[in-house]
Write a structure and sequence with these properties.
Number of strands: 6
CATH architecture: Beta Barrel
Strand order of the largest sheet: 1-3-4-6-5
Shape: globular
Length: about 120
């Protein structure tokens, strides 16, 4: 079974490539490790999903990805180059850019909870 789940932020704006056969979107996801450090993981989405990612995501966007690992290789200047990519199967927008999050935590663009009326149906438990 080849299933990968990641939560991270885009390191750059997605790169969209299109031709008459397919649409491809490549981006790199920065994923924090549990203890120390960050991993930078190359991701690829195809067709309609690629178009949506290119349209709505930018550098700093936080997403949750489900996909599969795909390895490959090609001949580079200094010999064979091996690649590891995540092929995106599902993607969820889960956050805002860090600047927007900072504004929310500092009280800008925030919503007061006493202004929202919730019924019992709004709670998941």
């Amino acid at each position: 079974m080849n299933i990968v789940m990641l939560i991270g932020r885009l390191t750059n704006d997605p790169e969209l490539k299109q031709n008459e056969k397919y649409t491809q979107c490549k981006f790199t996801l920065a994923v924090n490790r549990l203890k120390e450090g960050t991993d930078f993981i190359n991701c690829i989405a195809w067709n309609k999903q690629a178009e949506l990612i290119s349209k709505y995501l930018k550098k700093g966007s936080q997403v949750a990805i489900e996909g599969r690992i795909q390895t490959g290789s090609y001949d580079g200047k200094n010999g064979k180059v091996y690649t590891t990519d995540i092929i995106v199967q599902n993607l969820n927008f889960i956050g805002t850019k860090e600047k927007e999050e900072d504004d929310i935590f500092k009280g800008k663009n925030s919503v007061k909870t006493d202004e929202i009326e919730l019924s019992e149906e709004d709670y998941p438990f």
